[in-house]
């Protein structure tokens, strides 16, 4: 069988660890019955072995003067002086108790057990108490108490020292006074708690890891009510805030410089007993840095020009204080440096620009030499600038049917760039520029394409819109249509004719002109579109072909020819002139008869005859008034002729005539009525069967020699109805 070989230092360390392990078991303790460590010879003392548990398990090991005595129950009786101790299976060896059996006449007894800081009872006892008068107690040969009546004397808060106590008394024996002295006694004061032992969770922790310290000690069960406090040290420096109630202390992170000797103190609050542990060495192990890595962090995951750049340098392994530094190729000066106890550090570069692009790396060092990271390339992305939209047409004015090019381009921005084209708020289409630059969109124009155009550029860093560009699509004029108003095939001289020219399509303004044969009559403009008119007062030269033209700058369009037939005087006018001449002749022939009738009517009026009322009388014959307003509004496809008198009713018309008499004024009145019979179509029938009924009324004049009262006669009396020959009515 082979055994592993250990170096002497290792063996010593193992032995020390074993001893500490054994020492840390709670001690057993002995109880005496009666509770005095000194007694008279012949008396018996019962020893009881106890540990921290309520019941001792198994046999108790008993020792006498340091030698093993026997294994037995927890209680034994003794009658021999010596040092007794015991040990249970769950405890370490108890403190020895020195029990003395004396044959002296006077003995000094001390109570047992006694712990540090306890009060102790001393009893000075003689074989015959009745013979004792006074008891004197001494410590180190100095009187500390005189007592006559008390059985015991109490000493307060004793400590573990080398003080010796004895007592004296005087007694009478055979009428002789004798002085008795007890044997010196050393009070057996047990430890209230043993010196603490400091335990660390690791004596060689890895740098950066936590360590737990524990200050181990214990109180005997008989003194478990006493409160203990603890304090921890590294070398001579107190850790934490000082005294604490817990026997454990946590060091969250151990660094290389934290290596050293650690120890602790334990203190009983009452009584004030302080004990310290031995020092325990802790050596912190440092791990060199390895696997240095550099990464880029930017808002939104993209490195944008004008934003902040964050460079993170990290190590996979490494402890202690690490020095981080950042560098860019081509630059001797480092970008930044940080020293901290961490596995990573970051450097922020504010508002990066184009010149900040390049290859970056970092280094890390924790006293074992710098370790470099791999190099990474940093490229910047810039948001697009505001794009510019241009419209390229094949001519100065965009015309329906033309193909125009919409060109959208931004001056700056990282590719790829997505462009969108808009007409008003409607998307026309989109196109991408993978390598940057601009894009085009072709549009075949219709009449609906007039309006405002814009475009948008976006490279995922924010969209930018161009300014609106207006586009007016011009529509060439269509062939115009020429119309006449009145719409008749034949018109007569003197009529006012409206020439209307209109193109159904065409962007304004439109220029119209009117042609008679090849002669331009005039022109006019329609600034808002629509048609235009030209008025023409007809003469005999205006017969012929008419046309019009339209132009809005995109080409001339001409209408079809329209023929105008122009005639002389109308039939109605001829009839009216003939009737007027005949009337004038008849009036001249009946002038004498008229004067006679006038005189006759005047005579009748004055004599109370017929009274002039101003109401016209009508001849049974009808008269037709010729048109005064120019051409008749009849069907243009029928020939123009005079209409029968039976179709018209002329309202009374009055015209003043003067037959030559200076003092008379006549008023001509006529009227023509409708007849229910169909009129004859021929104008000759009208002349044969109908004659106008004409009535003249005389209007009196006042003479200078007339009586003033006669000048103010009723106006109704100033008229007389006179028959008269027809007169010309066209004047």
Automatic annotation (TrEMBL):
Residues 26-100, 288-379, 387-474, 480-567 form the Ig-like domain. One of its GO terms (cellular component) is external side of plasma membrane. Keywords: Cell membrane, Disulfide bond, Glycoprotein, Immunoglobulin domain, Membrane, Receptor, Repeat, Signal, Transmembrane, Transmembrane helix. The chain crosses the membrane at residues 574-598. Coiled coil: none annotated. Gene3D superfamilies: Immunoglobulins. It holds the Pfam family Ig_3. This is Fc receptor-like protein 3 isoform X2. It comes from Zalophus californianus.
């Amino acid at each position: 069988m082979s055994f592993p070989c250990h170096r002497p230092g290792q063996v010593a360390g193992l032995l020390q660890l074993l001893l500490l392990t054994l020492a840390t078991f709670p001690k057993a303790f002995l109880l005496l019955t009666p509770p005095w460590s000194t007694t008279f010879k012949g008396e018996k003392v019962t020893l009881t072995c106890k540990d921290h548990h309520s019941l001792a398990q198994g046999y108790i090991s008993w020792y006498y003067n340091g030698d093993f005595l026997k294994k037995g129950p927890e209680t034994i009786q003794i009658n021999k002086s010596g040092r007794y101790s015991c040990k249970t299976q769950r405890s370490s060896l108890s403190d020895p108790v020195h029990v003395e059996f004396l044959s002296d006449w006077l003995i000094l007894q001390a109570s047992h057990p006694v712990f540090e800081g306890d009060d102790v009872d001393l009893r000075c006892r003689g074989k015959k108490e009745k013979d004792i008068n006074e008891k004197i107690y001494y410590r180190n040969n100095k009187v500390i108490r005189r007592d006559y009546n008390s059985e015991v004397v109490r000493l307060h808060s004793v400590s573990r020292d080398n003080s010796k106590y004895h007592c004296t008394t005087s007694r009478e024996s055979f009428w002789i006074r004798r002085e008795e002295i007890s044997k010196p006694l050393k009070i057996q004061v047990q430890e209230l708690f043993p010196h603490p032992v400091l335990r660390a969770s690791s004596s060689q922790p890895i740098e950066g890891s936590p360590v737990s310290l524990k200050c181990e000690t214990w109180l005997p069960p008989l003194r478990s009510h006493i409160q203990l406090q603890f304090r921890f040290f590294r070398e001579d420096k107190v850790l934490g805030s000082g005294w604490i109630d817990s026997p454990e202390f946590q060091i969250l992170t151990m660094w290389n410089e934290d290596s050293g000797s650690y120890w602790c103190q334990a203190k009983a609050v009452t009584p004030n007993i302080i004990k310290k542990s031995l020092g325990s060495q802790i050596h912190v192990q440092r791990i060199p840095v390895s696997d240095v890595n550099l990464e880029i962090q930017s808002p939104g995951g993209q490195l944008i020009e004008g934003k902040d750049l964050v460079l993170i340098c990290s190590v996979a392994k490494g402890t202690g204080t690490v020095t981080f530094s950042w560098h860019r190729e081509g630059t001797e000066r480092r970008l930044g440096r940080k020293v901290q106890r961490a596995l990573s550090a970051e450097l922020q570069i504010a508002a990066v620009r184009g010149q900040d692009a390049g290859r970056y790396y970092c280094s890390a060092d924790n006293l074992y030499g710098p370790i470099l990271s791999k190099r990474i390339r940093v490229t910047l992305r810039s948001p697009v600038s505001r794009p510019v939209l241009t419209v390229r047409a094949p001519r100065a004015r965009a015309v329906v049917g033309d193909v125009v090019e919409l060109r959208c381009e931004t001056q700056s921005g990282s590719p790829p760039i997505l462009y969108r084209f808009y007409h008003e708020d409607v998307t026309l289409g989109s196109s991408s520029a993978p390598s940057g630059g601009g894009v085009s969109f072709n549009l075949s124009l219709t009449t609906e394409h007039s309006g405002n155009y814009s475009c948008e550029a976006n490279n995922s860093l924010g969209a930018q819109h161009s300014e609106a560009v207006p586009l007016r699509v011009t529509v060439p004029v269509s062939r115009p249509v020429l119309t006449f108003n009145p719409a008749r095939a034949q018109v007569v001289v003197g009529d006012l004719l409206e020439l209307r020219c209109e193109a159904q399509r065409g962007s304004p303004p439109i220029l119209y002109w009117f042609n008679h044969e090849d002669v331009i009559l005039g022109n006019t403009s329609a600034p808002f579109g629509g048609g235009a008119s030209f008025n023409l007062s007809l003469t005999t030269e205006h017969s012929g072909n008419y046309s019009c033209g339209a132009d809005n700058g995109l080409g001339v369009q001409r209408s079809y020819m329209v023929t105008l037939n122009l005639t002389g005087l109308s039939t109605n006018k001829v009839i009216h002139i003939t009737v007027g001449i005949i009337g004038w002749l008849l009036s001249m022939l009946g002038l004498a008869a008229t004067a006679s009738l006038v005189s006759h009517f005047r005579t009748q009026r004055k004599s109370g005859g017929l009274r002039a009322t101003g109401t016209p009388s009508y001849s049974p014959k009808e008269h037709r008034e010729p048109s005064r307003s120019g051409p008749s509004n009849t069907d243009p496809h029928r020939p123009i002729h005079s209409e029968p008198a039976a179709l018209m009713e002329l309202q009374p018309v009055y015209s003043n005539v003067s037959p030559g008499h200076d003092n008379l004024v006549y008023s001509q009145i006529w009227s023509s009525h409708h007849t229910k019979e169909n009129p004859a179509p021929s104008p000759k029938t009208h002349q044969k069967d109908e004659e106008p009924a004409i009535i003249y009324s005389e209007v009196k004049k006042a003479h200078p020699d007339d009586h003033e009262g006669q000048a103010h006669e009723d106006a109704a009396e100033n008229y007389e109805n006179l028959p008269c020959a027809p007169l010309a009515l066209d004047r």
